[in-house]
Structure prediction request, 251 residues.
Amino acid sequence: MIWLIGIGGSLGAAARYLLGNYMNKKKKLNPFPFGTWVINITGSFLLGLLGNLHLLNEISHGVWFFAGIGFCGAYTTFSTFGYEAITLFQSNKLKLACAYVLTSVILSIAAAGLGFTISFTHD
Amino acid sequence: MKLLSVMLGGFFGAITRYSIGEWIQTDNGIPLGTLSINLLGCFLLGWFLTFFTLRKNIKTEFILFIGTGFIGSFTTFSAFSVETVLLFQNGLTVYGVLYVLISIIFGILLAFMGLKLAIINVEKGETR
Prediction:
């Protein structure tokens, strides 16, 4: 079973790497870390959805291990979020740093809540 | 090779996160497993990226394997969000607020401490 987490994790990390690179290329001159920002919000939504389906026993343990703990867990990242925040603080972009931290946290939690809620009403 | 390095790191990062999470179990209250993982990962990534950016001649694949792959997948934002939602849903509002504040404030602080330590380490290495 632990292999499923590993495989989900490697795919999640790959998705984060590819999407992050793509976003950074698009927004080259903008210091706001859009890549990690979008990744953490969308991943939180997906895990909210999967988490509730798991609690309701609508998905198997294997799917939860692969897609939830593995993919979503590895796709989203807290450490890069922290590192990008201090990078912004250190380059004296205080407003941008605060905006990055606050919107990441608030929108990710809201997205997780939304994912959680809509998975109740699927039938 | 770059994508493969990220994927290999992600494989081990996710498994390590699960194993530590299983080991630090919390039934009710602040999710200590994810909290310790995220705080530790913030410190490690702050140190790692600073240390190896300051020291030249490091292979990109190595940075991608450890930094983007392993530490990136070891820490997780989605579990943090979902656990916060669950705390609020169970009426544990104070725990929810505390969990968010501790994660964010100490996460950023530890990333900063990792960065500072790496600068000290590199400077010491150069004077020797």
Residues 93-127 of chain B form the longest helix (35 residues). Residues 94 and 104 of chain B are 16 Å apart (CA to CA).
